[in-house]
Amino acid sequence: MARTRLYRNGRLEAEDFPLDDISEHLRDTGAVVWLDLTDPDEADFDRVQEEFGLHRLAIEDASSPHERPKLSHYVAHQYFNAYATDFDPEDGDLAVHEVAAFVMKQALITVHAGDFDMGAVVARWDETAELAGHGVPYLAHGLLDVIVDQQFDAVQALDEALEALEDTLFEETPQAIRQVQQRSFRLRKSLGRLRKVGLPMRELVNGLMRSRVCVIDDEMMPYYHDLYDHVLRVAEFTESLRDFVGTILESNLSVQGNRMNNIMKKVTSWAAIVAVPTAVTGYYGQNLPFPGFEKHAGLVSSTVLIVVLSVGLYVTFKRKDWL
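and the corresponding structure tokens:
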């Protein structure tokens, strides 16, 4: 499935034209072409390679899934790989969508799977149509701006999920305890995944800003500086949340340890309380005469001893905050 656009002198002239017309359009130095490939096969890559003269290694990277975010420089073009993100606050999972792009002087080729919403990128281009005269740098900026915005939305959603998890950290219910344990590890996994796809974006955007193939003019450069600032915010936010997750896990362990100590204190205190009547009844249960033996006074005195000593121990433990 392919999608095309033609910009000429900063204006959108055509959409969804055949791939065979691309070479004819590129003969005009004022024309810029965008080609989008969704779930391409080997034949599609061969056709694009022949049409644009793309490097074989770049084609291999675009056709291989799960490549790390990077920017590669070739003689006639540049290739970069990036990941859009989508965070689900309900289950705490992070979905990533790989996007590859070939950057040339007059063309931008994007390659992605069907799970990536290219419509958001097209909408971003249409919102900033006044910048279309800058050519390929305008198209590449719109693509990366959507990707970085999605990463920033994901890291913000992760921050909110971690703050909500922190609120349940000191709840005593068994359900809350299990929720903190399970969700904290799931959020840490999602954060680690976001960190892997977000941190390399600094080198990617910085490399594009110094590109010799796709030269960014003075009017477009502030937009790339703003994009680079967003990338840094995502990286810094991710690092701070990484420490936040570690703090939550350590706090959870401390809370669990304190909760266990409290339980042990209570169990020990009740064991001591139960031991007193056991000792008294054991003493009075000897097969030997004792004060009040076979008399009503013996029953009364043993009962009084049990009650008085048990209550005394309970009050003592309560004052020490052991119960």
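(Above: one complete record from the training split.) The first strand starts at residue 2 and ends at 8.
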